[in-house]
Design brief:
The chain is an all-alpha fold and about 300 residues long. The protein is about 80% helix and about 0% strand. It is built from 12 helices and no strands. Helix 5 runs antiparallel to helix 6 and helix 8 crosses helix 10. The longest helix is centred in the first third of the chain and has 36 residues. It comes from Bos indicus.
């Protein structure tokens, strides 16, 4: 029996080690993703490499679980202008997927998105569109056509059309991306704003205002929505409502992230544009309600 006990303890120790490594895999992966969405590609590389090493330790050298780390390294390489290195990582990812019999739709989506980004960097827009269309297809299979995980494919496809001056197609896709994020954030925002009083603790602060996103997804939302905002603002005289729509989405995002100052900034910009363009009183009042909510938050006493 003592031998059994020691073997049991050994197995328990191995399980604990694997759990710690799995936690480190996710932590390193999220950190690397966040840096990439923030444009800090150099900083993303060490975290992505650590994620890859931990994945190798846990899953072996040929597991499909290595693919997300290869794709992060490819994307970081593209951000640093190292196209050949990015191609090497993508080739490794493709080969691993081809050998695997159990590859999820989500991983197929990520692979095609990164191939799309590679061909965008090489200015081969036909191939880029092909891979981004596949990205959208696999993301839709995995999560649904209107899910935020599908929005990145639509966004990059819109960027291609925008660069090719096919502005109507780009506009349609930017609108779709905005609507996807608006629905997602509005669902969380409505729950929070309706239950705001119940979510105030004894110190006069909210317990938490979860976006339902991890740090990397929040960084992705900021990157996508601010990029769309910059495009909308360049034509805001023609379509102010589209600009205000994105400003209100960014308000919700920052409000849910508990960044009141940024939320207030976007609401004020929306109100200023609504007044400048002489939009309806109803629209102006809707925006003013957002500012009033911020004021209530800031006025909560802290004792």
């Amino acid at each position: 029996m003592p031998f059994y006990n020691s073997e049991e303890e050994r197995q328990h120790g191995l399980q604990q080690l694997q759990q710690r490594q799995k936690h480190l895999i996710e932590l390193c992966y999220t950190v690397a993703q966040k840096y990439i969405f923030e444009g800090k590609h150099e900083d993303a590389v060490p975290a992505a490499l650590h994620s890859l090493r931990f994945r190798m330790n846990v899953h072996g050298l040929s597991s499909v679980e290595l693919v997300p780390a290869y794709l992060l390294l490819a994307e970081a390489s593209l951000g640093l202008g190292r196209v050949v290195q990015a191609e090497e990582y993508l080739s490794q990812a493709q080969w691993t997927v081809l050998k695997s019999t159990e590859c999820s739709y989500a991983i197929h989506s990520l692979l095609h998105r990164n191939l799309g980004l590679l061909y965008m960097a090489k200015e081969n827009y036909e191939e880029a569109r092909y891979h981004l269309a596949n990205d959208i297809y696999f993301a839709s299979c995995a999560f649904g056509t209107e899910h935020i995980r599908a929005s990145g494919g639509y966004f990059h496809l819109a960027n291609i059309f925008n660069g090719l001056k096919k502005l109507d197609l780009a506009d349609t896709l930017y609108t779709k991306v905005s609507e996807i994020w608006n629905k997602y954030l509005n669902d969380h925002y409505q729950v929070l704003s309706q239950a705001r009083i119940q979510q105030i603790d004894l110190l006069g602060k909210r317990f938490e205002t979860d976006t339902g996103l991890d740090e990397a997804q929040e960084a992705e939302a900021i990157q996508i929505l601010t990029s769309i905002l910059n495009i909308r603002e360049s034509t805001s005289n023609k379509a102010p409502q589209k600009t205000i729509f994105v400003l209100k989405i960014l308000f919700m995002l920052y409000f849910l992230m508990m960044n009141s100052s940024k939320a207030k900034e976007y609401a004020l910009r929306a109100l200023h544009l609504a007044k400048k363009q002489k939009l309806s009183v109803q629209e102006q009042n809707t925006i003013q309600d957002l500012l009033n909510l911020i004021s209530v938050e800031e006025a909560q006493p802290i004792t």
